Fold this protein.
Amino acid sequence: QVQLVESGGGTAQPGGSLRLSCAASGFTFSDYAMSWARQAPGEGLEWIAGIYGDGSNKYYKDSVRGRFTISRDNAKNEVYLQMSDLKPEDTARYYCGKGTHSILVFTSDGSSRTDSWGQGTQVTVSS
């Protein structure tokens, strides 16, 4: 079955950086787009970044564009989220998700269709 395991979370100071990783198994990784989403305390799940199965296209939510970078290594079945210039409002639990197609399929709320999520990794940005 699909397994997604996130790692790399922790505590960072404002302006700092963190790199999240997600190890995938149970499916042909390169055949599917992958996404990252986050959930802050008391809030819903917020899609923030996605990448096509072949890595050719990447999309970001406005709030993270220019600060976060999504990438993938299909040989390792891993997807990454490099986060820079972190802000306190980036504090959330971060999840990676498997898309439903090789490309990102966006819904009316601006998120990309995802059929599996990992357990998440906590990111706290605080001085």
